Amino acid sequence: MAGELSKEPQVNPEGVLEQLLRTVRRRKWIVLQATIVVPLLALVFSLSQEDEYTATATLLFRQAPSGIAEGTENVIDPTREAATNGQLVGLPVIAEKAAESLPGASGEEVLEDVSVEPSSEADTAKIIAITGSADLSAEMANAYGSAYIDFRRNADRSQVQDAIDVAESSLEKLTPAEREGKEGAALGEQLDHLKLSQALQTGGAELVQPARPPSGRSSPQPLRNVLLGFVLGALLGLGLAALLERIDRRVRTVDELEELYEAPILARIPRSQRLTKRRAEAIGPQTPEGEAFRVLRTNLRYFNLDKGLRSILVTSPEAGDGKSTVARTLATTMVEMGDDVILVEGDLRKGGDLIDVAGKPATGLSNVLTGTPVEKVLMKVDVPATGGLRERTLTVLPSGPVPPNPSELLESAQMRELLAQLQEQFDVVVLDSPALAAVSDALALISEVTTVVIVGGLGRTTRDAGRELSKQFALLGKKPVGVIANFTEPERGKYSHYYHSDLARSTPGT
């Protein structure tokens, strides 16, 4: 068994899917809220938006004609030409020219509503117009394309016109004889060629795909936005859940406790104001608290059939898990049900605060371990009768003054002899120990008792502290008999649930 327990640090190796499912199970409300809220926000946003319609026209860029002068050639860099066309088609002056053909539209409005997307793989560009009207979007896209074509055509023709002006000026300077000669004939032929080239200028662009009014709106799209919101909400919820898992290391569910310690759940102790009173007060059997501790007593006896329930060490990984309250109430419940029980306040660092009672002695366990007879420090505390039972008495061994060396005292031979003596004298010894993951005071006591139980506080115990405690048990070669889940939600009117579910989960082989 010790060899198996020594492998505890690698308990429950999990893959990514198992970790994700565990996170979703622990943080299901956060994931659920994000999955619901984000799509709702997307729907509200969609319904608040104005309708928009998108129309697209396509421009084709063509290579400019050959040189304006005969015998010359244009050497064109395709990459540079594409970049030039892309910049020209987006100039504000184009928007101004397009606005002239659109009644009531300004250049600023056209520039705001129209976007140009040059292609990186072809000599084309898309002109995309988005407005609140399907017809207006198509008109604006086509007007913008036509304005660009006119702009390029006028620019190219203006360039050819400059050459024509030069040729005509040169021709006018010739004498009549020169005009009739070879020089005049050459200039005339060049002038005719330039005029023909000017007439053929198209601006190097063509509206190959005019825009048409769209059949439906492009925005908003509530269904698409809600579906995207659902996906984003789920991702956001998972992200928040994972972040909280990294930040908040506390155990939240009973199943986590069971998996953390690889031990059965002995009882679920509900969060209750009744359990906060530091008195030896019996809790009625017809209450969730009373039923939970009766189930705990039954399960403890069930798991100790072979060696008997003689001594119980109640411990927890951290302070605040409620182990002292559990130890006190368990001892009181066992006394109420007829057991002769002694409650030992074994946490020598707290000065003893398990039970408030008048006339409580100033001496206690720390004095006994340094020589004081145990009979002189034992207290007899009356447990009031409930449910028709007679009044009984709980014996308490208080912790006494805080010693300078609590670890040495609890590990001493005197402590082992005292435990043996008390187990002979009483039916059951309930020993409240310090938090073992915080201090090592009571580690030596684990091998001296018949039963060890761990109290796990839901919302209090951290997984890191729980794993550290499990490692300590593995090193000592003794496994706790089970886990007590503290601070659970009450289940009033469901007492049978404790018996059936806990015993079924605890029974070996089930």
Descriptive account of the structure:
The protein is an alpha/beta fold and 510 residues long. The chain has three domains: 2-6 and 14-48 and 223-247, no CATH class; 53-219, Bacterial polysaccharide co-polymerase-like; 259-506, Rossmann fold (3-Layer(aba) Sandwich). The chain is built from 18 helices and twelve strands. The chain has helices at residues 2-5, 16-26, 28-48, 78-88, 92-100, 107-113, 134-172, 176-180, 182-200, 222-247, 254-261, 288-302, 323-336, 365-368, 406-410, 413-425, 463-476, 495-506, and strands at 53-61, 114-118, 124-131, 205-209, 265-270, 311-315, 341-345, 379-383, 392-397, 428-432, 451-457, 482-488. It has an eight-stranded mixed β-sheet with strand order 5-12-11-6-10-7-9-8, sandwiched between helices. Strands 2-3-1-4 form a four-stranded antiparallel β-sheet. Strand 11 (451-457), helix 17 and strand 12 (482-488) form a beta-alpha-beta unit.
The parts where pLDDT drops under 50 for at least 5 residues are 1-13, 66-73, 493-510
Per CATH, what is the topology of the largest domain? Answer: Rossmann fold
Largest sheet: 8 strands, mixed
CATH architecture of the largest domain: 3-Layer(aba) Sandwich
Helix coverage percent of residues?
A: 40-55%
